[in-house]
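Notes on consecutive records. When two proteins share a document, each keeps its own sequence and its own token line. Never mix them. Below: protein one.
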Amino acid sequence: MARPLPLLLLALGLAAAAKSPYQQVLQHSRLRGRQHGPNVCAVQKLIGTNRKYFTNCKQWYQRKICGKSTVISYECCPGYEKVPGEKGCPAALPLSNIYETLGVVGSSTTQLYSDRSNLRPEIEGPGSFTIFAPSNEAWAALSAETLDSLVSNVNIELLNALRYHMVDKRVLTDDLKHGTTLNSMYQNLPIQIHHYPNGIVTVNCARLLKADHHATNGVVHVIDKVIATTTNTIQQVIETEDSLETLRTAVAASDLSSLLESEGQYTLLAPTNEAFEKIPRETLNRILGDPEALRDLLNHHILKSAMCAEAIIAGLTMETLEGTTLDVGCSGEELTLNGRPIIANKDVLATNGVVHFVNELLIPDSAKTVFELAQESEVSKSADLFRQAGLSSHLTGSERVTLLAPVNNVFKDGLPVIDSNMRNLLLNHIVKEQLSSKYLYHGQKLQTLGDKELRVFVYRNNLCIENACIAAHDKRGRFGTLFSVDKMLTPPTGSVMDVLKADHRFSTLVAAIQSAGLTEILNRPGTFTVFAPTNEAFQAMPQGEFSKLHGNAKELANILKFHVADEILVSGAVNALVRLKSMQGDKLEVSMKNNVIHINKEPVAESDIMATNGVIYAVNYVLQPQASRPQERGDEPADPALEIFKQASALSKVSQRNPRLAPVYSRILARMKENSGGL
């Protein structure tokens, strides 16, 4: 019964050790500043501004905030002060009431206004309060009109504003949990708290600058803005903003209003009217008229969590309600989306999140046509080719297709001329259904708009459709999917024998296959890889050797079978070395060197000549299986016994030089004579 006590103590120890992100960053700043004395924190200051940040490890080495350079300064950690003549910050700040503490921590303007508004007696007296005190710079940043409206009526507006910055209990940074709300001392209106993994804490999107300053009657946190009450949901923000009129119409048509009115913590990247106007009218009408595409478009603008601008000090990836991701970052004072500074107005706070106005529409792949996907990617030249061939209608409508589009590098020497043959070839780059590459399987058959059947080959390091291998991740559009492939596809036109007969380079090989009785094998359904010697290869054989082969059908068949493997290997599957078992039985070694396929270390003349039952490589030499290569004694087979005697002879010479080995040699020789019948 007593054993659980150590476990309880361990759990308590772990709980105590689990610091909040803010405390972790503060601890790192302490470690970096300790060489300057006790309670010194390293602070990164953005050059040219007064913005300071406690540093984490990554920022320490990068020396950048939002892509801008910083300098390191050293100052007293929160709650401590310098002592003349001593190193560091050895003294704790004197503990006094909240009113006095405001003057010590850099919020003397808040102290002044609390005096004017008659809040001073309350924050000097007994109790337990937390105040999120705007810094002096925060008050100075208010417009003259806003500040005048507060200060001119000190007994009401200013007091209410200050009480909205207060909570009637002591709340430290460890208690400021991400996504929680605190009831303020002004009509219990909520204050939104966000505590981000990078250590930044925001209060209604105002950043905590100096935290956890203890007072006799509470705690003071200094923030970088004067915060205002908010009672509108995200949906109400949309309804009241004139610049979001088009968005308002789109939200109503997509039935997303209820979501944007519900409880939660979202970030809406709200496209302005200007953003919608930048989109081609045809594209916009298509999306607005398609409920599914419209919903995907809007969900792509909604992040799953509230992200205040002050929390973004470097790039990060955020997930949208649509299931996609956006790269959210910053460049100086500007927020960026996918690397572009398109956020026009940031941190419009709502009760269920935050709204940033964006001046460009973010169209997800799922709302685009496959033609639009191709135009915007590394296959834009292919898109132009399909347009020239008059096939773009298949890629812009509601037809379910998959486009196999060669990457731009395939056309580095220019686009091919469009004729009937090229148009038919391009039709065979469009598969009749919308596919996902991760669900393709080896041997799968795909039907094209050109009425061809394409095969899928799955290899360890690649996924190929006929001779073309997928070069990038899929892009899945509204009705079509884009597969970027590494070359133009060449659909098969006949069996291996059909292809060889149709190519004059292989006339000698065709005759040899017929003489060896292999025609039927290479005509039947199968999965062959054929390394086909050209006429030139046979002509290069030693004089009389080919005639000798032709006179021996069995030996000819043996040689030819060594050129055939019973599996399909296209060039895109060869990364380093691949070993294939030939029909003759010996192994073939296929490798890639300088972007050229090699068979048994010799380069091939042409790769990936596709057939319905295999693939052909043209080679300018005749491959020789191991058993057919010349031996040391001409045509005589190697004799294992002879090799043993050679070794025995060598051992004899050694034994003559070393008397200790002589008996061993004699015994071995006697045993060998016994086994060989007294040779």
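Protein two starts on the next line and is unrelated to protein one.
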Amino acid sequence: MDTPGQAPMAAPLLLWVVLLRWASGGGFTRAGRTWQHCTDLRPLDVLSEAVPPGALARGMRVLQVQGLRGLQLSASRPRALAFPASRLFIHCDRFPEEFSIIVTLRALRRPAKRNEYIFTLMVEESPGVLVGMRYAPDKLHFMFWSQERAGGWQSRVTFPNVSLSDSRWHTLVLAVSGQSFSLTVDCSVPKDVVVETPFPASLSVRRASFYLGNRRRRKGVFTGLLRQLVLLPGADATPRMCHGLNFKVATLSVPSVLQDVPTKAVSNEVLKYPYETDMKVTLGARPRCSKQEKAQFWFNASRRGLYLCNGSTWLSMLEVQPRLDYVEEHQKLVTNSETMGVEVFSIPRLGLFAATANRLTPPGSAIYRWTDGKFVHYQNIPTHQAQSWKYFTIGKKIFLAVANFEQNERGQEFSVIFKWSRRKAKFLAYQRISTHSARDWEAFVIQGEAFLAVVNHREGNNHNIDSVIYRWNPRTGLFETNQTIPTSGAYDWEFFTIGPYSFLAVANTFNGTSTRIYSHIYIWLRGSFQLFQSILTFGAADWEVFHIGDRVFLAVANSHSYDSGMPAPSNFYAINSSIYELNVTAQMFVKFQDLLTYSALDWEFFSVGDDSFLVVANSFDGFTFSVNSIIYRWQGYEGFVAAHQLPTVGCRDWEAFHTAEGSFLLYSSAREPLSKPFSCHLRATATVLPISLSGLVLLQQVQSCWCAPGPALLHAWG
């Protein structure tokens, strides 16, 4: 058997390893010279030098925003925020020839023409800046004093399209070597600039001082928060900073006053450093959470929980943790016809909705609204053997795309994007896109641009066709073809990101003769998706990506093992579905665990309290559609372990969602014409809270899809 995962790796990921090995070899050298005689090449914490031991300098305050502490600098006393450069350069008075500067800051939104200084290095009684960094709302400037000609002059290196003034934390790494200047923001793709004037090989810092957030005057003083300012001589700090997942707050060295646990004074119980934060706590019923309430707290007395508003939703900070206890039926929801899939989504100020992809035309598919703890019919939408829905937004626009499997009454094959009309309070047809037996849509954003990818299952009897990725054109307000990717009877797209990288996985199901084929993972590089890794699958119907802590997993639902050129197995449908984990060292997904499934069509990951779960949609075991679907609980070292069995009939899809009434799962069935909801109950340390599992009865066509091998199977893949 072929070993999955043999595709070549992407160049930027391999570059991480090269840089790590290069950096560990001693850093930059140039013309046989090093700077080691000036320092021991350790990180030089500029910010810590400016903070006196045991206290803060005048003009400094410690504030906490978005969970991190930073220094706020006063504009009234710029000279108080300074210290002699000799405190850092203890062996000589020259600035390093090659170095990195690491900055973590939170910049406020400022007027378009406002420039603010992050730091400067200036000689006493001289207005010139030896070394400095300043930013505008959309660019960053690095300044240095060049002395290659008599008298010297100020040089400036500008990095355009650097957006820092968004009131969020960002980490910058500036690497300097001769004529080359490289800026990395939040460990994204570096911005490289090569200039004519190199950084000086011997820049004297005699009688010079560092100034934090200013250039020795009040104009241009930094108004945000500064958390980290480090000079690393002789090395590119990017590999040292970009090794985790939380890139925006990567830390090389921060002052003790800004670390997570403030030091307490010996003499009393007060904090050693002045520490301030704007904290407001609301009691009573669930309040609104918007930009105006951002950083405010709400205490829920009934659940004994403390929540923080992040500007849109309440995040749990402290609460009694529930645990999944048992499951029971919650609601029976009659649908227009058998349902192939379901999409749960929220519309601002209107609440929760569910769209069902129904087989029959008419009456088409339907949208339901969550009302008084249950779904109530809201709108019918004409579709043609709909397979799935995808909800997404672009700015303030709200869209819902349906994947139609069959032709319309005129013999035309289109999938349709619907747009929410605020005036009519319903979805209206917006754009038709030509598709071929479409199975699934996936919406995603890369570098601020919106994309929509469709899975084309087959064209006639040909399953080996192109699926298409569309890019949103803001000028025309329409999606336009951006890229085609060859697929084989594909069923599903799954988009995900890891750090600054974007990935798209396709579930290839059937190539015309076999379900034993490779599914592929693509990575976004240089404006298009390129092959990253191939994994052997067996009638793959779904990919599900999820995170547990810092670990990244990818689960595939294998539906059927069939190959016209090989002996038939004893059971086509009892087959392992697999969970893969990202191996950062190998830079690929490797198999983590196999789970026995029965014609699995979907995975859904969800959490209850601190527990993580996977639920599988088992549809057919080779004899009957009445097959239990299984909820697996994450058990750490043991992986996922079966925790609950749910009686389902031809289960096709699972959706997890949360409401004010609790947490829910919605399942769709392939055999029954109505929903079969379940109610799940939670066990807590002090209270018992209900969590409900709802179910739909969906998808008549899957009955023929998974019945038997041979001609019935071929009809199914069609």
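For the record: Residues 11-24 form the longest helix (14 residues).
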